[in-house]
Write a structure and sequence with these properties.
Layout (H helix, E strand, L loop, with lengths): L2 H20 L17 H8 L6 H13 L4 H12 L4 H10 L12 H16 L10 H13 L6 H4 L2 E6 L5 E2 L2 E6 L1 H8 L14 H9 L1
Parallel strand pairs: 1-3
Antiparallel strand pairs: 1-2
Helix pairs in contact: 1-5, 1-6, 2-4, 2-5, 2-6, 3-4, 6-7, 7-9
């Protein structure tokens, strides 16, 4: 997929997220997401921050200083601050990004793709909702994660295994076979182990034991 195709996929996923969020009951916004310590509201708020303006960048700098440079704590603090917005405003802000190819400083468009695909499932899965993740962009996201050294360190974590998608032409690694839908593999790569039962193959038992030890 080229850059324009990836951004089109990002737009489609943003619209799916908006549709899902618009359908949530008040109490569902406060339920835990797949992100440890984050509610559905927190994750939705985080997704409003994919296109920071100059004023937002100033707030981000303050958040990072207060977090003493800890990226995870800084991102969490920003999401918590943004979560004070009304649900309607958060939905409108996510929808308002559609059609724009703006990305945040320090990331590529592929990280933006990872962010929307993974966090859309962080919201949907614990609520028992089904939210489509297209195989082709999921494969692009999984490839990007495999190329990166951090923060997931997947080549070390999944050493000795061959990961193969069953719904698109995608595979990485060498070793014992683990297969499944590429969206499930994407989630497992980024530590969402709730997707492990969707995988199969000779290596799935040992991999599950490794990741859940």
């Amino acid at each position: 997929m080229n850059r324009d195709e990836v951004f089109a996929a990002i737009d489609r996923q943003r619209l799916r997220v908006c549709e899902l969020l618009s359908d949530l009951a008040v109490e569902e916004w406060e339920r835990p997401s797949l992100c440890d310590g984050w509610t559905v509201r927190d994750v939705a708020a985080h997704l409003t921050l994919q296109q920071l303006g100059l004023r937002d960048l100033g707030k981000a700098t303050v958040a990072m200083v207060r977090a003493r440079g800890n990226l995870d704590r800084g991102i969490w603090a920003m999401a918590k601050s943004a979560s004070s917005k009304s649900t309607d405003r958060m939905i409108a802000e996510i929808r308002g990004m559609v059609g724009s190819q703006k990305i945040n400083m320090g990331v590529t468009y592929k990280e933006t793709l990872i962010d929307i695909l993974v966090h859309s499932q962080d919201i949907a899965v614990p609520l028992g909702r089904t939210l489509e993740v297209e195989p082709a962009p999921a494969a692009v996201a999984a490839d990007r994660i495999w190329e990166m050294k951090g923060p997931f360190f997947v080549k070390k974590k999944f050493s000795g295994y061959r990961l193969t998608a069953t719904d698109t032409d995608w595979s990485v690694g060498e070793g014992v076979e683990v297969s499944g839908p590429v969206d499930a593999l994407l989630l497992v790569l980024v530590g969402r182990l709730v997707a492990l039962p969707r995988l199969s193959g000779a290596g799935v038992g040992a991999l599950t034991a490794r990741l859940t030890f």
